[in-house]
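Dear colleagues,

For the upcoming journal club I promised to circulate an example of a predicted protein-ligand complex. I picked one with acetoacetyl-coenzyme A because it came up in last month's discussion. The inputs are reproduced below in full, followed by the predicted structure.
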Amino acid sequence: MTAETGTVGVDQIGIYLPHRVLPLDTLAAARKVPTEKIHIGLGAYQMAVTAPWEDAVTLGANAAARLFAQGQVKPEEIGLLIVATETAVDHAKPVSIFLHDLLGIPNNCRVFELKHACYGGTAGVMMAADWIRSGAAAGRKALVVSTDIARYPLQSSAEFTQGAGAAAVAVSAQPRLLALDPISGVYAKNVYDFWRPLDKREALVDGKFSVDCYLDALAGAVADFCAARNRTGDKNTAPLYTQLAALLYHTPFPKMAYKAHLRLLESEWQRTGTQPADAAAAAARSYAELVDPWLEASRKVGNIYTASLYLCLAWLAERAADRFEGKRVGLFSYGSGCCAEFFTGTFVPGSAQTAARIGVADLLAARQQLTVEEYERLARDGTNGGVPPSGDAAFCHLAAVRDEKRFYERNGITG
Ligand code: CAA
């Protein structure tokens, strides 16, 4: 076994989003909240809503099926399958083993579910990259599926930040999309900012505190990243953001990415002594160039916890990989509780061709709009299985829950 010495990173991404969407202006009207508070105050416009036959398993399997349908990665190449979720369907039986079965992944594959709130997806990607670098992969690829349904109590202020969806990320040597740099910065601290006790379907959150925890974790992870970079002998003292073509942040709601970017700029200005005279104007320009263009999908989907950062990455790749080939981007992942990681990657030559197959814009355009009454009924009905209508074309669905067991069916659609 020899360690992998070439590049390691994201080979391909598959995204899946529910077919149903609720425009948030209608929810704002129903809750007697000014629409501007949601559109401007949170930056959110729509949220994805799941049907009774959609859960973390179906969302994740549908994302992975869309990845395989792009034709560059095959189920038989997968030697490590990690599913990151905070919407598990069982305390013992992992979501990953359902995906392993539904997707026809070989038996000689390490399969497990991983949890650390929204950070789980990045924990999986980092673990997969290390598995490949170590040589243990022996030429195989890893599949890291992040899949979640963000649910808060009806009528709560967090209700506007719900969402659902999944991202499947194939990690390999000589990746076709994004080469990951080997250094990253991490930050961990035990905080009670967002949690979901074992008997609860909806998350509990100390909203304002969670925003502060996120921002502190960002500062901590970036400081650790800079320290790690210094240890490699890289004496580059320019502010981090000047060396990056885009910055992608975990996006529980789009305004959070704005707050995050401000914090990053402030701490970098302080670290490098480069605060501009008109800091507010410089911050607005930097945000408009590096962050805002990649938030469009999040604005229309809502929070998808573990998959949120990877939806932003998919959107950037799909819209602009041709302009980004050879360019480095920064990614920040935050999981409440908390653990966070800041890392970087470079779009490889040819990545635009790979990215053109992801199809997020098509998924967004094909959705059916719900009324608030329909959304509330779906929220109360829960996830007990059913038969999707023919317009809901997807790879698989939850057919039924019987005797405390879940039964999934493939629909004969490849992606
Ligand atoms: N016009 C324009 N803006 C308005 C407005 C109006 N009429 N009325 C209010 N606003 C603005 C407010 O000024 C505020 O902006 P700033 O944050 O820039 O000050 C914004 O709208 C939100 O309003 P509130 O401060 O009143 O906040 P809220 O009670 O609506 O709660 C929230 C906001 C705390 C984010 C809540 O939605 C929540 O708890 N969400 C879930 C938790 C969350 O997403 N936390 C993020 C960090 S944790 C994390 O990232 C992990 C994860 O995925 C959960």
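Two points we might discuss: The pocket of acetoacetyl-coenzyme A is lined by residues 34, 36-37, 40-42, 118, 157-158, 160-161, 193-194, 205, 207-208, 210-211, 214, 250, 252-253, 256, 303, 305, 334, 336 (CB under 6 Å). The chain has 13 helices and 16 strands.

See you all on Thursday,
B. R.
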